[in-house]
Every structure is written in C-alpha cells, then in structure tokens.
Write a structure and sequence with these properties.
The chain is α/β, with parallel strands linked by helices. The protein folds into 2 domains: 2-137 and 280-293, Glycogen Phosphorylase B (Rossmann fold, 3-Layer(aba) Sandwich); 155-278, Glycogen Phosphorylase B (Rossmann fold, 3-Layer(aba) Sandwich), CATH 3.40.50. 38% of the residues lie in helices and 17% in strands. The protein has a 6-stranded parallel sheet with strand order 2-1-3-4-5-6, sandwiched between helices. Strands 9-10-11 form a 3-stranded parallel sheet, with helices on both faces. Strand 3 (58-63), helix 3 and strand 4 (84-89) form a beta-alpha-beta unit. The radius of gyration is 20 Å and the shape is elongated.
C-alpha cells in the first residue's frame, strides 16, 4: 500500500524522534511504500500533499494541539481527494478535564479517527463518527530491554514538570531514586539502569511512560485513574502494575518494590510480556491497516 504520513516537522531539518516518526518507520517495516510530509501548525500549508493526494491509498495524519491553519487545510484536502484520510488524535483527553477540544472540527473531515483515549472513543462513537481506540504504545526502536550488568535496584523516572511526590521521594530515597530529563535516544540505557519506574498521570489519562518503561523491563508504580479509561482491564493491580491513591500507599508500594525482589520481578515480567505481545509500534501499525482493509 502507498501511504502518505504527515505530522509537525520541518522538512529542511534532520528528523528527531517522536511517535509519528515511529509509526512512519513502522509502516515501512511492514512493507508499505511510505512518504512523509511535514507541516508547521502555526502556519500550515498542505498544498504539496493536496496536489499529490490522489497518488496514495491512504493519508495518515498525527497531530495534537490547536492549529486553525491546519484545520482549514484539512478541509481543503478532504474536498479535493477521494483518498482515505486517517488521523491520530494525539493527546486526546475529554474536554471536561482539559477545557480544550482541538478536534471539534477535525473529527468531521477524516474517514477514521484514531484516539488514544477510550472515553473520547466512546464519545465519538455516540456521535456516529468512525472512531478507533488507538491506545498508547511502546516504540521499541527507542524503548527496549537489554542486558545490563550494571543494573541497580533503583527507581528511575523521566517525569517532566511538577509531579506529586517527586521531591519527597528524592529526599527520602536519595540516590536510589533517580529523576532525569533526557534525550529520547538515551531512554533505553536510562530505563535499563534501574528496576522500576515511578510516574504520575496529570490528566487522568493512560500515560505512554507505562508502556515505555515496561517495554524496557521495568516494573511501574503509577497513580490510580478513572476506571472508564480502561486501564484496569489492561493491567491488573499487583500482577502487572502497581497502583496507588494516597502518599501513604505510594510509600508502601515504593518500599515493597525496593525490598521484595519476587514481587518486583513478577510485576516487571508480566508487564513486559503484555507490552511485547500487544503494545508495540507494529501492533498499532497493523491496527491501522486492518481498519483500512475492513
């Protein structure tokens, strides 16, 4: 199949890693002819893609955040071609949580919606829109398990911005709790330097870090979120993952992960197996292809 992939990047600069690039590479690895088109969300111009749209079997967009110029160009594209347009709705979270609805216009001008959020997916279906739950995944070109003879029994995390308990954990656990903001290419070595990962979902969402850390072979400790996200059907408490609701519970789970080798290893192994079997780039690529072929 011939696929045009389009997302926010500057075609005049070297590509840096991001989930859209991971999908692009995944389509190529699956044997498809794939071509990329960059755009600037501040001043979007899709003229080249519009002029070449009929050359493709599928146009696949990845976009998050507001862009009135993109929305205008999308409508123009949709009106000019019969080629199917699929779109990944990046960072799609229910409006009552964020106060924003970036996809209000876009959802009416694509042939298939791929949303990361189960609640949004169910909402789109209720509107009669063609929606697919496109759960976050582990890009195993960047995040993967490797043998590390220097691995230590420490917690490693790459949380960005302010998160509850980060400073407190650093103060209590010292050099056994390592928090860094790192380059994407450094993630594999960083996650493989420890045995488990702490993360916090700020927007009541299933976060990508669960899949990335788990794909590197780490156990994961995360805050509990709403059941309607689907997370508790995906990962069973104290079998595949560790959940907490209060600071007291978080400290108890942290101590158990530090001291109970059997418990920590079971969590890490079960989470890793689920991610390797169901939640890699190739699985999401196949989902897109299956939707196209249905």
């Amino acid at each position: 199949m011939k696929i045009a992939c389009s997302w926010h990047f500057d075609e005049n600069l070297p590509l840096s890693w991001g989930t859209p690039l991971g999908l692009f590479e995944g389509f190529k690895e699956a044997g498809h002819d794939v071509f990329k088109y960059g755009f600037n969300p501040q001043n979007c111009n899709l003229d080249k893609l519009i002029s070449e749209a009929d050359n493709y079997d599928l146009i696949f967009f990845c976009i998050s955040g507001p862009s009135p110029s993109f929305d205008e160009q999308l409508i123009k594209l949709k009106q000019s071609t019969k080629t199917k347009i699929f779109m990944e709705f990046g960072d799609d979270i229910p409006q009552h949580i964020t106060g924003s609805n970036f996809f209000y216009s876009r959802k009416h001008h694509v042939d298939e919606i791929f949303t990361l959020d189960l609640r949004c997916h169910n909402g789109y279906l209720a509107e009669g829109l063609p929606s697919n739950w496109f759960l976050v995944w582990c890009d195993d070109d960047i995040f993967y398990h490797k043998d590390n003879p220097d691995k230590k029994n420490i917690c490693v995390t790459t949380c960005y911005g302010e998160r509850p308990l980060l400073k407190e954990f650093q103060n209590v656990f010292g050099d056994k709790f390592v928090h860094k903001n790192i380059d994407p290419k450094e993630n594999t070595d960083f996650y493989n330097s420890g045995t488990f990962t702490y993360q916090f979902a700020r927007y009541d969402e299933i976060t990508r870090r669960i899949f990335e850390a788990g794909g590197c072979g780490n156990a994961v400790l995360t805050n509990r979120i709403s059941p309607d996200t689907g997370i508790y059907d995906l990962f069973i408490e104290d079998e595949d993952i560790c959940y907490y609701s209060t600071a007291q519970e978080a400290y108890a789970k942290m101590n158990k992960l530090y001291t109970d080798d059997e418990y920590r290893s079971k969590i890490a192994s079960n989470l890793y197996d689920k991610i390797k079997s169901n939640h890699l780039t190739k699985h999401r690529v196949q989902q897109v292809i299956d939707v196209y072929n249905k």
